[in-house]
Design a protein that fits this description.
3-stranded antiparallel β-sheet, alpha+beta
């Protein structure tokens, strides 16, 4: 009636009746109650040899606080794992699965029995290789086992046709392993587009009927020249690129070269500037030059 025990407030008689039954039975089984001030008490009642009752009362407020903090931390961890785009898996020191997140399940949509805690890593790998239609299942399994043992360096894999992942693994404090799978498909697609673009540019550059060259703006040294450059100016490509081509100068007037460099540094285009060029044999001829960054 004093309102000390929060769970008894409003149901005092019922609570007292239950409490008296626990006292009479005196099984020693602990029960807990929370006081209205927030404190928690754990009580155990035992029968004595003489037929009496021995009651012990322990303040477990700090323990309850830590349990609450642990539950909150577990909830936050679960929420984080659920929200991750990366596939996340934890294995125990015997390399058996402990937990995986939804993203991992999406990457490896295998029978749930394989993701049950205690399943050996190799079984999960083989099932994942099959479900993702790996062309050589055993080769995939061998690669994963080698990567697992630190015997393989390449941690990038085409998980399924056109879908690329990178896997990173680390040891936990207890000797287990944490695996994180990240989707790099978009990056791989961009790399492919870049390679194709570079290929097209290279073809157009080297086969252009015009003299074309790529120079470093800082010192106007040659980084690349095309076939027409070699034909018209008489300099073999490898000679031009040797030592960045600093020994080769095709402009007859150095002032003109400095003017072109100055314009480009100011962000200005050079459009059909009349210049005099010099072939390797010393012959001079007039030409129009255009340049841009």
């Amino acid at each position: 009636e004093a309102g000390i025990v929060s769970e008894a407030v409003g149901r005092e008689e019922e609570w007292i009746s239950g409490r008296m039954a626990q006292h009479r039975n005196a099984t020693g089984v602990a029960f807990e109650n929370q006081r209205v001030n927030g404190n928690w008490i754990r009580v155990s009642v035992y029968k004595t040899k003489s037929g009496g009752r021995l009651a012990t009362s322990t303040d477990i407020t700090e323990l309850k606080r830590r349990e609450q903090e642990l539950r909150q931390a577990q909830t936050q961890l679960t929420d984080a794992l659920e929200a991750m785009d990366q596939g996340f898996a934890v294995y125990d020191p015997q390399d058996r699965v402990v937990l995986v997140n939804p993203a991992f399940r999406k990457m490896f949509p295998i029978d749930e029995k394989y993701l049950t805690p205690g399943t050996p890593f190799e079984e999960i790998v083989r099932a994942g290789a099959i479900i993702n239609k790996q062309p050589d299942v055993e080769a995939f399994v061998k690669w994963r086992m080698q990567l697992r043992g630190g015997e393989a360096e390449d941690n990038v894999v085409e998980l399924s046709p056109g879908v690329w992942k990178i896997v990173n693994e680390s040891r936990s404090y207890d000797g287990g392993i944490v695996s994180v799978w990240t989707d790099i498909t978009e990056l791989k697609q961009q790399e492919q587009i870049l390679r194709e673009t570079e290929g097209r540019f290279s073809t157009a550059f080297h086969n252009s009927p015009l003299v074309m060259m790529i120079l470093r703006l800082s010192d106007m040294s040659y980084l690349e020249v095309n076939t027409r450059f070699e034909e018209l100016l008489g300099y073999p490509r490898l000679d031009v690129l040797n030592d960045d081509g600093l020994e080769v100068s095709i402009l007859d007037d150095k002032e003109v070269e400095r003017e072109i460099q100055s314009r480009l540094k100011r962000g200005q285009e050079v459009d059909e500037m009349e210049v005099v060029l010099r072939r390797k044999n010393g012959e001079l001829f007039e030409a129009l030059i255009s340049a841009d960054l």
